[in-house]
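Minimal example, chain plus glyceraldehyde-3-phosphate.
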Amino acid sequence: MALVTSTEMFKKAYDGGYAIGAFNVNNMEIVQGITEAAAELKSPVILQASAGARKYANNDYLVHLVKAAVELHPEVPMVLHLDHGADFETCKSCIDSGFTSVMIDYSSHSFEENIAESKKVADYAHDHGVVVEAELGTLAGIEDDVKVEAGNESYTRPEEVEEFVSRTGVDSLAIAIGTSHGAYKFTPEQCTRNEQGILVPPPLRFDVLEECMKRIPGFPIVLHGSSSVPQEYVKIINEFGGAMPDAIGIPEDQLRKAAQLAVCKINIDSDLRLGMTAGIRKHFVEHPDHFDPRQYLGDGRANVKAIVAHKIKDVLGSDNKI
Ligand code: G3H
Ligand code: 13P
Ligand code: ZN
C-alpha cells in the first residue's frame, strides 16, 4: 500500500469510536519505533512533520524515511502529514513533495484571514488528492515560532465551526478544549492534588467538544497537545541526571473519552521525546563506557515503540483496525 490520505481512516474511526494517533517524526529511530508498533498492533497511523522537523532532518529525508516504513509495512495504512503549516507556501511545498495531508494553522490570525488561507490551501490540496486540517481557537504552548502564554489561549467558539468548515472546505478541524503543547501543560496552581498528593489537571472542556459535534455532525475533530507526559518516564529522566520538575500532561482517560466522541486524530509528540530522552539518559548513566550511537539510540527507539503501542491499545483504541 502506498501512503494514503486520512479520509477513510477518519470515517472508520468516527463510526467505530476510536482515534488515529498522529505522532511527530524527526529522525529514523522515531519513524521506526512508531511504525513497528503500528504494524505489530495492526493499527493505521499518521506520521507528522513540523517545520522544525523539516528544517532539522531535511524534508526529503523525512519523506523517504516514511516511504521506507511504508515499503516495510505495506499492510499498515500510513499518512504523511504536515503539522502546523504556517502558510499556503509551506503547505504547497509539502503537497508537491509527497505529503498526503497538510495542516494550515492560521488560528492566530483573524477568523476571515483563517478562512481565506485555509480555503486557498484546501483548493490546492484537493486538486492534488491531498486532505487538509485547519484550526479554530488557540492552544497555550509553543507551535514552532508562535508562543501562546498560558492564560492567553482561547477555546474554540462552537458557533464558528459550521461556517468555517463550509466556507473553507477543509477535511478536519483542530479545536481548543484545554490541551496545550509541550511537557508542562499546567502549572501546579492550575491543578488540584489527590489524596496521594499527585497533581490532577483541570478537566478538558467536553462541553465545547460536544457543542462542536452538534453543529458539524460526522465531521472529524483533531486534538493537538495531547501528550500525557507519563510520569514513569519523567521519573527516569529526573533520576538519571535530568531536571523536569512539575512536567504534567493530559490524563489518558480524558483522551480515551475524546476518542470515543468525534475526535478522530490525536497529536502526540512530547511523550515520544520523553521516551527517547529517558532511554538515552539511563543508557549513558548505566554504561558510561558506551559511545556507539546504535546502543543508546536503540534504547530510545525501544521506548518510543513501547509508548506508541500503549497509546494504540489503551488510549486511542486503534489496534486491529487495518
Ligand atoms: O506542535 C508542536 C509539535 O510538538 C512540534 O514541535 O515545532 O518543536 O517540532 P516542533
Ligand atoms: P504534545 O506536545 O502534547 O505532544 O502535542 C503535540 C502536537 O500537538 C503536535 O502538533
Ligand atoms: Zn500541535
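The radius of gyration is 19 Å. The pocket of glyceraldehyde-3-phosphate (ligand 1) is lined by residues 24, 50, 52-53, 83-84, 143-144, 181, 269 (CB under 6 Å).
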